[in-house]
Design goal:
By secondary structure, this protein is an alpha/beta fold. The protein folds into two domains: about 140 residues, P-loop containing nucleotide triphosphate hydrolases (Rossmann fold, 3-Layer(aba) Sandwich), CATH 3.40.50; about 55 residues, no CATH class. It is built from eight helices and ten strands. The chain has a six-stranded mixed β-sheet with strand order 6-7-8-3-9-10. It has a four-stranded antiparallel β-sheet with strand order 2-1-4-5, covered by helices on one side. A hairpin with a 2-residue loop joins strand 4 and strand 5. The longest helix is centred in the last third of the chain and has 18 residues. The two termini are about 35 Å apart. The structure holds adenosine-5'-triphosphate and magnesium ion. The site of magnesium ion has 3 residues, from helix 1. Adenosine-5'-triphosphate binds next to strand 2 and helix 1.
Length: about 230
């Protein structure tokens, strides 16, 4: 399955009855299989934008189209979240009472039979270099290993778009670089489109393109040419 094309057009999002403008007017296009880094100061709107693209929240205005689906008005957002898009966060959000292979199976619950879930979870852990740690519980894994489990879990249902919010933010720079290598490999081998929030210049430099968001506005020269006329 190929990566998703993403079109964000003139999106606005405010909080607290309009007192806080998190996104003022954001337009952004991602090609299939593009790896784009999203940077910018704290509070600039990075997580808000990711959450809207991932249908965790809805925009006040504008349009978000992912793989041909109008995300903001989608009838079945749960299905979109289960099948098209996946998240990786700064803190891996693994369930500590489940081992690695059980954690990776979570998104597949109710979607695939048990034997297939297990086989696939083991296979994914092998792909992220944890073939020998499949029965470990999160507290017995290093930070980088936990993030690998989180990435394997995110890949469980073969998402066409991966949204990663500071996936290397809690890691030392060497481990962070390894996680980025892994994400690049995911992109190269699966064609997954990846939008990655980072404040680390070394991480951003590994992306195909860097876009910056500040005060709810994109401010990179690369994207301004792609923005829809407002
Ligand atoms: N649920 C919410 N309710 C109220 N305000 C919010 C909410 N979510 C975000 N905001 C506000 O919207 C603005 C953008 O926040 P956002 O989390 O998108 O920033 P960010 O770029 O991800 O910052 P950071 O780098 O610190 O994670 C901030 O002013 C924030 O306080
Ligand atoms: Mg954030």
């Amino acid at each position: 399955m190929s990566g998703a094309q993403v079109d964000v057009r003139n999106v606005r999002k405010s909080f607290e009855h309009g007192r806080i403008s998190a996104l003022v007017d954001v337009s952004l296009h991602l090609d299939e299989g593009e790896l784009v880094a999203l940077t910018g100061p704290s509070g600039g709107g990075k997580s808000t934008l990711l959450n809207l693209i991932g249908a965790l929240d809805r925009p006040d205005a504008g349009e978000i189209v992912v793989a041909g689906l109008d995300v903001a008005t989608l009838d079945d957002q749960a299905r979109y979240r289960a099948e098209t898009v996946a998240f990786v966060f700064q803190f891996h959000n693994l369930i500590t009472t489940l081992n690695a292979v059980e954690n990776v199976q979570i998104p597949m619950l109710g979607m695939r039979p048990r034997a297939e879930r297990e086989r696939r979870a083991n296979e994914l852990l092998g792909e992220v270099g944890l073939g020998d740690r499949t029965r470990n519980y999160p507290p017995t894994l290093s930070g980088g290993e936990r993030q690998r489990v989180a990435i394997a879990r995110a890949l469980a249902n073969e998402p066409r778009l991966l949204l990663a919010d500071e996936p290397t933010g809690a890691l030392d720079s060497e481990t962070g670089a390894q996680i980025l290598d892994l994400l690049r490999r995911v992109r190269d081998e699966r064609g997954t489109t990846i939008l990655l929030v980072t404040n680390d210049d070394a991480v951003a430099a590994q992306a195909d393109r860097v876009v910056q968001i500040r005060d709810g506005l994109l401010s990179s020269s690369e994207t301004s040419a792609l923005q829809a006329p407002s």
